[in-house]
User: What shape does this take?
Amino acid sequence: MHRPLLQMFLFFAILLLIIGGSHYYLWVRLVRATELPRAWTILFSVLIPCLALLMPAGLLLGRLTDAPWARLVAMTSYIWMGTAFLLLLGVAAGDLLHRGALWSSAATDPERRLLLARMFGGTAAVAALASGAVALRSGLRAPALFRQEIHLRRLPKGLDGLTIVQISDLHVGPTIRRQDVAALVQRCNDLKPDLIAITGDLVDGDVDHLSSQVAPLADLRAKFGVYFVTGNHEYYSGVDQWLTELRRLGIRTLRNERVRIGQGENSFDLAGVDDWTAHQFGGGHGANLPQAVAGRQAGDCLVLLAHQPKQVTEAAQLGVDLQLSGHTHGGQIWPFTFLVRLAQPYIAGLDQLGPTTIYVSRGTGYWGPPMRLAAPSELTLLTLRHTESLT
Assistant: This one.
């Protein structure tokens, strides 16, 4: 079995185990432990397994067909995915409090146990549904415009004030469609940027299903052009076909290479690398920053597009002035942020590693659940400043 297929198989096997186990836990705590009336017990004993099966069904259908009914199933499954995550956290927290209440009072009365189980279970359910509604409202909003000035010592004085619009993690697919892309393109063009950078995870699906949905990207306009680097999701979606399609749309893909932005003394190097995981998919893919920077003038300003923030470690070693990344979604749904921190050194916003400044976008779209909790999406306008312009 080819490695990508094996990885996909293992991913779905683990996913099914997690989905099955978490839904069984929800059933135990919300149905069995609360001793609901028989009719409600039967209803939820059927509904919870159906919702569990809906998750993988939505993931698969969203990629296999672009039919309206499949998109509806995918949207429903994604909303439940986010709600179930919040519900699981709420029930787990309630379970800990429940046990603590029993231990502290040394209660053995079955009626008291049942009362506490219903109280904590009900509170967890209400809290999860309320926070899910807030997250859904935030996720379905158009991304907010976020402005950030970045000061770079080696940026030529003549380029002080250069603007870059960063789009990252848009995830065009079953729930983010052509109208969303067209609206985003209009907003980008209205900003009249000098350069547009798309830092990966643009799509969730193959070219056959989504080419018409991303077509408005051909209308993006910037003085120095539009540039793209791959994210991990491009490798789940037929990366080579997407690279061809993006070039057809007039978007320059940077695969372990660099280009010169500007003219003469008023110019800098813009480099781009494949996603951190690209080497796993073969076909000549894989991040290679040394190749991208080979032969450049060491004293020139260098801006790097790299999907994953963890690529900044090598960037700092090779003298990159600024790295633009995405991938993390800022955690997307709190408190998932804490898990993201285990895999990535930076989650969102501006940071510094040695000589390298890094900016991590929280993402312009979302993956899976159309939800964002304490991690709003963003369309980013970066203004580069020469350090001598500081006052």
